[in-house]
Specification:
single chain, 242 residues, mainly beta, 7-stranded mixed β-sheet, globular
Length: 242
Amino acid sequence: MVIDWFYPYPPLLSGRLINRYKRFFADIELDSGEVVTAHCPNTGPMTGVYLPGNRVQVSKSDNPKRKLAYTWELIEVEDTVPTWVGVNTGLPNRVVRSLLDYRGLPELGDYTDIRPEVPYGIDGKSRIDFVLQPTEGDRPLYIEVKNTTWVQGSLALFPDTVTTRGQKHLRELIHIAETARPVMLYFINRGDCDRFSPGDVADPTYGQLLREAIAAGVEVLPCRFDVTPAGIRYLGLATLEL
């Protein structure tokens, strides 16, 4: 189901990616010819989307206290057709919060309260992205959000590298499955994928844990988003392939 909801980007500037280095930095040549160093919010390998020479979009902050005024937001890839891909891993949680406020995920049912960054976990030292209080029943919804941009054709995959942190999150969702309603939400940050699978080649342990989590009652929502320089639109759920 496609809903009438849209998350706008701030005004963006267009350019081309020169290179990325030290994980957090990206040199970008703007269309004006100026070369700027932008913050790269994605510290992972960016498999299939780190493509020097490709078109990118950056935002600019007016905050004088920021070390880098620019943030790398999008890159255009051409796997089958030209597609914009979101690379700002700090954005999905804000987008999901907006979608939750809009009540745009009917699979979650009705709820009255949204709490972000709630402490939980086996050792109590983790934080779940969102906890929702349902209007009926007494089991709260615990939602963990994961950003994914790695694809094989129209198949989105997560993770694109070994993630011990992601493995821990799955174990913690399994741990609370008897007292809460755990949900793993995969934020597919590009509009050219209609299927989703665990990235077994990159992290077979994660794939095994995801299957164990599903068997234990953890729900999986692979959410598709169309990404453009104007903003982000929710497209519905991808087909889960295990």
